[in-house]
Amino acid sequence: MTAAPLVAVATPVVRRWRPRPGAVVGVLMLVVVVGLTAIVPLLPGRDPMAQDLRAALLPPFTDPAHPLGTDALGRDLLARIALASAVTLGMTLLIVVMNAVIGTTIGVLAGWAGGKLDAVVTWLSNVTLAMPVVLLLIAVCAVLRPSAGLTIVVLGCTWWVGYARVTRTVAASLRRQDFVVSPLTQGADTVWVLVRHIVPNVWPHTLIIAATDIATIVLITSSLEYLGLGVQPPVPSWGSMIFDGQRHLAGDPWLALLPGLVMFLAVGGAQFVSQQFTAETRGGLLRTGGMR
Asked: What is the DSSP string of 180-195?
């Protein structure tokens, strides 16, 4: 599949973009998080794993060598928060992409084919919705060793139902439209019709769900990391850093507050931007009738 459907959707959205105050604030929040994630690892002497017990529990802004202080093992908090941001955001994007691809593919095929395949997909989506994700991951971790890869696989294969249900409805409503039936009656290949006429009209709905899912997935992955079911030590993550920092809340609260603040910026920024993106994309669908 080419990038043409995605470009066709994104171009009119960018042209119609009228940023609201919330969207501007959201972009600034995301810029802070992305800048922290991208720039800090390039700075010299920022090793998130290096320990120095002589410099343990330094408060923020008291040592130029450690601008945000250090943890109980003397590790630089700025470097560890930057690495934790890269880990958590990387996992989130992988999970969202996996769910979007799986859910959209299943939904389009079910909506196009109908019949038994549609019934099977409906049953499978109901079963998937009935399984609590956290309990499912705990059960899997009881058999397999907890890891970031396991979290990505489990969440990437269980959060697709929303994509499938929406795209299935859209695909089912489009398959009897004239612009779809006409090329089929003239001998066009089914795959070509799906790629040319169905997918471009399904992608906007997929992107809306994906935009709103980013903040949710960040919270879920961080919660799982807090419970020790995601990224394993010594690799840092927002959830694990908050868990470790809560032991020092009485004397050194910054150990939990700083990663929590960065997570708040990421989640809040994603929410503000996704609301703007959703409003613009839905407005475009209403003006065009959702079909091309």
From this structure: HHHHHHTT--HHHHII
